[in-house]
Design a protein that fits this description.
Largest sheet: 4 strands, mixed
CATH architecture: 2-Layer Sandwich
Pfam family, one: DUF7009
Radius of gyration: 14 Å
Oligomer: single chain
Helix content: 10-25%
InterPro entries: DUF7009
Strand content: 35-45%
Number of strands: 8
Number of helices: 2
Length: 116
């Protein structure tokens, strides 16, 4: 799972297996190991009706409504957006990059803009 943060905007990108894990277990998480403690980022399924987010200590949690999770997992929809206070939220499927990259993209979704 990747996150991109810019000012008051947070975007989560999930690979195919992470989307599947979210659908199956209702949660998917990852972390970055800093010297004194990890920074944890999580998406979890909730009974709420809109995307929301919380940051507590060293953990950022995006709460995704159950209906969105089901649609995200079972359709070709690319993602969902929302707002939590001043913070804009986006969760989306991670596509293979069109340009060259050294990153492993074997679990990413095929890019619909990539013409072979």
């Amino acid at each position: 799972m990747k996150i991109r943060i810019k000012d008051n905007s947070i975007r989560f990108r999930l690979t195919q297996s992470e989307v599947s894990e979210l659908g199956k277990n209702g949660i998917v998480s990852s972390f970055t190991e800093f010297v004194d403690r990890p920074f944890i980022y999580v998406i979890e399924k909730t009974n709420e009706t809109t995307l929301s987010a919380a940051f507590i200590e060293n953990k950022m949690v995006m709460k995704m409504p159950e209906a969105m999770v089901e649609e995200f997992v079972s359709t070709d929809i690319v993602g969902f957006d929302g707002q939590s206070g001043l913070v804009k939220l986006l969760v989306e499927k991670d596509f293979v990059c069109i340009d060259n990259t050294m990153e492993d993209q074997s679990d990413n979704y095929p890019n619909p803009n990539l013409k072979c």
